[in-house]
Amino acid sequence: MAPPRRPDDDAALARKRAAYFRGYYERHKAEILEKNRKWGAEHKDRLKALRQARRAQTAPPEPAACVDCARPVPHGPRCRNCHARHRYATDPDYRARRLASTRRWLERRAGG
To answer: Does a structural domain hold residue 19?
Structure first.
């Protein structure tokens, strides 16, 4: 009876197989790619059907939503309005800068 296999034996075997197939692919890369191109040229309709099936299976990703108001956002956790509101509430330096800027703008507007 063979001794029981250990998990590290499986990992070592997997690394050995991966190294073998990596080397095989590097040695035969041109032939493999040529065979794939030839098959693709001969089976255009099948490739088209496979691509369409794969595209139909993968659903588009759920659009990201703002963590505060749940509006869709292209990137980042918050929409523009909620981001500004959050910065005002949490960053005193930002608040002071923006209030000073707004005050100057209002003064220029009232004066001119």
So the answer is: yes
108 & 88 share domain: yes
Rounded mean pLDDT of 69-81? 92
User: Which residues have C-beta within 8 Å of that of residue 68, sequence separation ≥ 6?
Assistant: 78, 79, 82, 85, 86
Identify how many contiguous H helices and E strands the chain contains and give both numbers: 5, 0
Reported confidence tier of residue 1, pLDDT bands at 50, 70, 90: low
Ramachandran category for residue 106: left, alpha or beta (phi over 0 → left; psi -120 to 50 → alpha): alpha
Query: Among 12, 10, 32, 34, which Cα is nearest to 23's?
Result: 32
pTM: 0.42
Q: What is the C-alpha separation between 97 and 102, in angstroms, rounded?
A: 9
In a domain, 4, yes or no: no
Residue 7 counted as domain residue: no
Q: Which domain holds residue 49?
A: 12-57
Counting the structural domains of the chain, the total is: 2
